[in-house]
TrEMBL record:
Residues 3-170 form the Cobalamin adenosyltransferase-like domain. It holds the Pfam family Cob_adeno_trans. Its EC number is 2.5.1.17. Belongs to the Cob(I)alamin adenosyltransferase family. This is Corrinoid adenosyltransferase. It catalyses: 2 cob(II)alamin + reduced [electron-transfer flavoprotein] + 2 ATP = 2 adenosylcob(III)alamin + 2 triphosphate + oxidized [electron-transfer flavoprotein] + 3 H(+); 2 cob(II)yrinate a,c diamide + reduced [electron-transfer flavoprotein] + 2 ATP = 2 adenosylcob(III)yrinate a,c-diamide + 2 triphosphate + oxidized [electron-transfer flavoprotein] + 3 H(+). It is found in: Cytoplasm. Its main location: cytoplasm. Pathway: Cofactor biosynthesis; adenosylcobalamin biosynthesis; adenosylcobalamin from cob(II)yrinate a,c-diamide: step 2/7. It is an enzyme of class 2 (transferase). GO terms for molecular function: ATP binding; corrinoid adenosyltransferase activity. Keywords: ATP-binding, Cobalamin biosynthesis, Cytoplasm, Nucleotide-binding, Transferase.
Length: 186
């Protein structure tokens, strides 16, 4: 199997099921942003210290869920192959909420606005958080025009909160002071 197909050379791509859309269509933008978030999480994982095994395992689960979310977004409800795609479900969102609660409880107390930074993996998780927020905005835009699984939006919203909590937890676990916003000086 060749990596290139030449089917996208005219600026179109195929949804799961065969429908063709422009590469700038809101649906393609949405799942493209999810792919970028997934890639950023993979980068953050590559920077994790060895002792962060639990965090790495959970991020791996998230990456798999994001791959599934991309398929969810690339498959129209009622379209061809719609029954073959596992849609993001309420249980997926609930799992993220449980992790948010645990990382928040185990992490440092919140005393003010946190600037992205600290340990390299924590900083990368903060970038993943920002990319996830952008993916969420793209899915919101898509949902204004077409049917979208509402759990997909909830999942992305919780994921950005989780990545924030994970970054804070990791900084604390590594003994790195997280940078705090100082406000305007002078």
């Amino acid at each position: 199997m060749k990596l290139y197909t030449r089917t996208g050379d005219a600026g179109e791509t195929g949804l799961f099921g065969g429908e063709r859309l422009g590469k700038d269509h809101p649906r393609v933008e949405a799942y493209g942003e999810v792919d970028e978030a997934n890639s950023q999480i993979g980068f953050a994982r590559s920077l994790l210290p060895e002792e962060a095994k639990r965090l790495d395992d959970e991020l791996a689960q998230i990456q798999n869920a994001l791959f599934g979310l991309g398929a969810d977004l690339a498959t129209r409800e009622g379209g061809a192959y719609a029954e073959k795609v596992r849609r993001i479900q309420a249980e997926d969102v609930a799992e993220l909420e449980g992790w948010i609660d645990r990382y928040t409880e185990e992490g440092p107390p919140f005393t003010g606005f946190v600037l992205p930074g600290g340990h390299p993996a924590a900083a990368a998780l903060q970038v993943a958080r920002a990319v996830t927020r952008r993916a969420e905005r793209r899915v919101v835009a898509l949902a204004r025009a077409e049917d979208v699984n509402p759990e997909a939006l909830r999942f992305l919203n919780r994921l950005s909160d989780l990545l924030f909590a994970m970054a804070r937890w990791l900084n604390q676990a590594q003994g790195v002071n997280e940078p705090l916003w100082q406000g305007r000086r002078g």
